[in-house]
Write a structure and sequence with these properties.
The protein has 321 residues and is mainly β. It has one domain: Porin. It contains two helices and 17 strands. Strand 5 and strand 6 form a beta hairpin.
Length: 321
C-alpha cells in the first residue's frame, strides 16, 4: 500500500506540473517533438505507458530497464520538406538497472547563397537571380545518455541527460536538456500507467531573442484487451490486442490526445494504428512490424493532412542479445 501511495504521489506531481505548460507560446528546437520510433508513430504517438527497451530512449526512459542484455535500435524518418532524420541507440540491461546511449541527426538540406552583387544577366544572356555558387548546410543533433532502475516489481523510473543543438552554418546554438519518466505496472489485468516529461532545460538564445524548449508532459494508460497472460477480457496464447492512450500537454499548444492500438500474432507479426486529436495537421497513423527471435523490423506511415506529404519511418532493432 505504501508503494502504491508513493507512485500515486509521483503521478500527481507530474499532473500538477502541467499547470506550468498552460501558457501557449513559441518554442525552439521543434525537431525534438518528432519521434524516430515507428512503433510509437504508428500507435498515434502514445508512449508514456508502452515504451519498450532501447526505443524508450526516445519515449519514456523508465521502460529502458525492460531491456535484458544488450539491445540496439536504428531508424530512418523521411520527414516533410525532404528533411531526413537518422537515429541510432544502444542499451544494456543488467539486474534491476539499465543504461543506454543514443544519437539523432537531422538533415534539413542546403540553401543556396544569394548576393545582390551576383544579380543580373550572365554572358550567355541567362538571368542570374543572385546565386553565388555557394550553399549553406543546415542540420541539428540530439545526443544523450540514459539510465533506468526497477525499484519494485511494479515501479520503475528513468532519466536522460542530452545535448541538443542546431547548426545554421552562419550560427549555431546548443543546450543541455533532460527527460524523466516513471512507469507503474499494476499487475491487475495488464493495466500499466506511465508519465514522462521531455525536453526540460534552459531557454535557447538566438542572437538577441531566447525561446524555451518544447517541454512536453505525457500521461498514459494501456492494457491488453486479450492475449497471453492477464488481460482485460480473456487470455489468448496466439493473439493479443493492446489498447493505449496518452494525454499530452505541450508547452506551445493546447492539450492534445493520442490513442493507439496494436494487434500481435504469436508475438511475431504486428499491425498497429492510432490517431492524434487536436493537432494542426497530424491525425491518422498506421504501421506494422515483424519480430524473429532477437531481430525486430518496424514501419509506420503518418498522414499530415491534404497539403503535406505523409511521413514514413523505418527501424531495425536487435533485442535482448
Amino acid at each position: 500500500m505504501k508503494k502504491i501511495s508513493i507512485v500515486c504521489l509521483l503521478l500527481l506531481a507530474f499532473s500538477m506540473s502541467a499547470y506550468s505548460f498552460e501558457k501557449v507560446g513559441v518554442t525552439s528546437f521543434q525537431f525534438l517533438k518528432i519521434s524516430p520510433d515507428p512503433t510509437v508513430a504508428a500507435m498515434g504517438g502514445t508512449y508514456a505507458s508502452t515504451s519498450r527497451g532501447t526505443e524508450s530512449l526516445f519515449g519514456n526512459p523508465a521502460a529502458l530497464v525492460n531491456q535484458t542484455g544488450f539491445g540496439t535500435f536504428i531508424s530512418q524518418t523521411d520527414y516533410v520538406f525532404d528533411t531526413q532524420h537518422s537515429s541510432v541507440a544502444a542499451s544494456w540491461g543488467f539486474g534491476n538497472w539499465a543504461i543506454g546511449v543514443y544519437g539523432m541527426s537531422i538533415d534539413y538540406g542546403s540553401i543556396q547563397v544569394t548576393d545582390i552583387a551576383s544579380l543580373g544577366y550572365l554572358d550567355d544572356g541567362t538571368f542570374n537571380p543572385g546565386l553565388t555558387g555557394a550553399s549553406l548546410t543546415l542540420g541539428a543533433t540530439d545526443m544523450g545518455v540514459g539510465m533506468s532502475q526497477q525499484l519494485t516489481d511494479k515501479f520503475s523510473y528513468g532519466l536522460i541527460g542530452k545535448r541538443v543543438s542546431e547548426d545554421f552554418s552562419v550560427m549555431s546554438t546548443d543546450v543541455i536538456a533532460w527527460d524523466v519518466g516513471v512507469l507503474y505496472d499494476s499487475h491487475f489485468r495488464s493495466v500499466v500507467l506511465g508519465a514522462s516529461i521531455r525536453n526540460f532545460g534552459p531557454q535557447v538564445k538566438y542572437i538577441t531573442q531566447a525561446y524555451p524548449l518544447p517541454q512536453t508532459l505525457n500521461l498514459g494508460i494501456s492494457a491488453q484487451l486479450f492475449g497471453p497472460g492477464s488481460s482485460l477480457l480473456s487470455e489468448n496464447p496466439l493473439h493479443a490486442m493492446l489498447l493505449t492512450a496518452d494525454l499530452v500537454q505541450p508547452r506551445d499548444y493546447a492539450q492534445q490526445y493520442n490513442i493507439g492500438t496494436e494487434y500481435a500474432f504469436k508475438d511475431m507479426i504486428f499491425v498497429r494504428g492510432g490517431y492524434r486529436i487536436n493537432y494542426d495537421t497530424e491525425g491518422l497513423n498506421m504501421g506494422m512490424g515483424f519480430k524473429l527471435k532477437n531481430v525486430a523490423l518496424n514501419y509506420s506511415f503518418s498522414a499530415y493532412g491534404e497539403n503535406l506529404p505523409g511521413v514514413h519511418r523505418f527501424s531495425l532493432g536487435f533485442i535482448n542479445i
